[in-house]
Amino acid sequence: MKEHCKLNKGNLTLPIFIFSFITFYLTGYLMDLGKISYARARAESLGDCVLLSSLRTRVEGLQKIALRWSELEPLIQSADFTGVKIAPGSQIWKEFETGLDAVKKAVPGYKGRVTAVRSMVAKANGFYPETVSILDDSALNLGVMPEKKRVWNDEGKEKVMDNLWWRREWNVSEKLGSPEETAQIQIRFHVRPTLPRMIGQETRMWPVTAFSCGKINWDMDVENPAVQQWGNGGYPRIWEEALWTGTLRPHRSPYFWAFLTTGKDDESK
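Given the sequence above, the corresponding structure tokens read:
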């Protein structure tokens, strides 16, 4: 009877060992599964944060350009298809020309901020800037360019100014404020798994990748009759759209909306 009992105890050793090994392995596997899930969630969150920050920085730049240009509107007396007439006086002429140059000089700074914000957001979230890769920057460029037009006053002074107004660069056939351009970024980094170290194997880093897509609508005030007739009021496609009630008003409704998309259509994530 005693020998029989000893035999039964010996038979339990192997099942206990197998159960312990499976538990040990399963614990390591679950730890790695949780680590990967957490890392992927962080990657997706970082991608959305970086992209929205970049898009909103672009929006801020576009609105500031429009705001700075609008400070010159009081100097304009009228505008037509040939150009702009400003108030007489050498000081007003100088102020108008200097103001246009100031707007143009400020634009590279706005462009630089769109790029710089990516690194800032990545670092603020504990990632290296190299973690962020731009796959499509179509919606991250400012997307406007200066255009020349004739300027004159009643004193007989006349000049073609190179940066009188700012034209949007996207497709001229897109009348309202929803361009096809999108932005797409990739977040990629590596995590170190737990299980291989637990069982004494060589540790290989596991890649974690996430993607984010987004775009900007240029003018949300689509109920405005002027927008419906002439297209986007924030930035015109052509000179005629910059004219309004006998004067130059290229930024009637400079409103913009940055949002995330699925990358396939315009549905918000």
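The chain has a mean pLDDT of 82. Try to locate this feature in the token string yourself.
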